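User: Please check token order:
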Amino acid sequence: MSVIIKIISYFKDPWTIFGLFAQFIFFLRFILQWYLSEKHKKIVIPKLFWHLSILGSILILIYSIHRNDPVFITAGFLQIIIFSRSLVIYKKNEKLDKK
């Protein structure tokens, strides 16, 4: 019974709720990519995937800074850089495809 009470007590902390929300946003990108790939019967990575990646990374970074976790802070900064670059490449390819 004490385990259940301990788990419930975690949800009283607004930062825990924020962290779970951040992870949910980041996880949505996988659901989106999986759904569209199944629908099209090939690997599909839509632009929204990169937007969710960046948003999720920013939210997780905010949470990591609050928790003072240097591992996730470093990972968050690197993810934002990499996902932003991927979005730039995606947009360049979009422009080339329209020509």
